[in-house]
Amino acid sequence: MTTTTVTEREIREAVTMKEAIDAVRDGFIDLAGGMFEMPTRIALNDGQFLVMATRHRPTSSAMIKTLSVNFRRTPAITGIVVWSEAGRPDQLVADAGPVTALRTGAVVGVATDLLAAPQADRLTLIGAGGQAPDQVRAVHAVRPLRRLTVVDTDPRRARTLLQTLETELAGVDLDTATDADHAVSEADIVCCATPATQPLFQASALPARVHVNAIGAFRPTMRELPDDLLADSRVVIDELDAVLQESGEIIHALEAGAITQDSLAELGHALTGPPVPHGGRTVFKTVGVATQDWAVARLLADKFLH
User: Fold this and answer.
1) How far apart are CA 153 and CA 174, in angstroms?
2) CATH code for residues 115-288
3) What is the pTM of this model?
4) Which fold has domain 3-100+291-304?
5) For the chain, what are the domain ranges?
6) SS3 44
7) Backbone torsion region of residue 242, taken as left when φ is above 0, otherwise alpha when ψ lies between -120 and 50, otherwise beta
8) Residues 190-246 pLDDT 10s
């Protein structure tokens, strides 16, 4: 038996955002088809420690990820991803930080490609932390951007993010802002990537036609979106059991009577169902599921295990 360890640099060099988006899209289609055995993740100390696992039945492969999450340190997310297959003894161990950022970006790319207007090219990103760069990369991969506005409570962090991305976003109009309501009012796509516990903006501030991705809140005590936005939008989620247990936005809106479970569409089923009509407001809410990590880990296994 051999164990291959993959570093952050190797992950970034081996997997492009387009590859990750395609792999995660295929993973959610398989999830909708019942091809994964996937328990809801274990959360300890209100999400400070997370354990996620899944098995892909057709390939008899499995992924287990353990995370430590602390937004007061850098990096906020640390841990490992372990890939194994029943058919061979070799396994792969990867740095969970970049895998998590890549797969979270990738699922936003999948959802944005499905739900955002074809001509959408103005992105407002709220939050300039560790997940932010891959949110931008993923949206840009499926909807080439004309304008990017980054909103953060720390303007220096927003400017640093833009400096990090400026080479990749050559020709894109780059700006920062501190007023979220104003920044989202001129957006075609909004990405929320914060540890917020209260809504980041008012629903009334959004255009009538806009797509919103929310990835930051992954515990019932966290919340980025207002109830009336969810009530007024087509809402797609990653997986029903996961959001009912972990998404503060979905739990709060259900308890307030703003939405019903029947109004929530899982991403895998939306991908395989009738074409989604473009128009009005759409929301994609994800807390993150193990299928995404499996999809990226499979790409790494294909490249590093021989």
Assistant:
1) 17
2) 3.40.50.720
3) 0.96
4) ornithine cyclodeaminase, domain 1 (3.30.1780)
5) 3-100+291-304, 115-288
6) strand
7) alpha
8) 999 999 999 999 999 999 999 999 999 999 999 999 999 999 999 999 999 999 999
